[in-house]
Design goal:
Length: about 350
Amino acid sequence: MRKDPVCGMPVDQKTPFTAECEGKMFRFCSEGCREKFLSDIICKSTRDSYDLIVIGGGPAGLTAAVYAATLRIDALLISRDLGGQAIDSTKVENYMGFDFITGPELVDKFRHQLIHSHYIDHLIAEVEAVEADEEGYRVKTPAAAYRARALLVATGMTRRKLGIPGEEDFQRRGVFYGNIPDFSQVEGWDVAVIGGGNSALQIVENLQPVAGAIHLISNSELKADQAVIERACRIPSLIRHEGFQAQVFSGDKHLSGVAIRKRGEEKMVEILVRGVFIAVGLQPNSGLAAPLLELNERGEIPIGPDCSTSRRGLFAAGDVTDAFGKRIIIAAGEGAKAAIAAREYLLHLKKRKCVTQS
């Protein structure tokens, strides 16, 4: 599959957005990227300066980008992918407008809004560093650096690991972190799911038609939404181990078992399983902001009611922040709020500049 030469997003042969240059045919994700490509050829220049840069392509970042477009903010979105953790969600329930929708379906709708309905410049790339200067912020990617007067960090979270013996040894050889394609690798086998929240119990539900016995290992009482708990507990093949912690993964070339221990006891119990799916929470991807801001004890970015941070012109939204509730719908709302707040900040800068000049 080819990549869009402007933003780096994968595009297929069926895309209607094409352009020919110097005898070569180029394909694009959207009309906006096609027009940007053609204008860059004509003026022989590539933009590297914006009013706002949004970092992160999850629900918070994508919503912020769409709102930036509707608010007519000169903005650039930079992300290593589009979707973030939402792409792994097999069931998103009661997102406004939908009683039920899968994560990939919801992300497709976000993406369509971003690149077709409310286009802004976007780049699929890893952000290596963020620096503050007199003009605002400098964002470095492997290929180039970009400047902006305001910055919006919406880098989300990544899945936590257990940090126990065997976890790294059996990565992709029996130890998984809840991705849908991994379910086919344990078809017909007994499996274990470690965790007690919504993500863990949704994995249990998805494994029901695929796996044999499903061992649910949780170090405390289940913490998922009550409706999710009730559905999962009706699964006949579910075996619950509440109050237990995983101690070690074992096997030869492939995982064959996990040893668990009840809290407060010494005795370990070996469970023979072919696959283990770990869903023990997430940790904020706040490393980029760490040199510029003081993080809280959980590594989150503290924000005000308007998504502002302790540094002027730097806003943050979604799961990377200390905002209450780690939900897709909350992250999306925070992204919208942050974009509106960034616009107010940029308007204030413009007014102040006009006063100074007069």
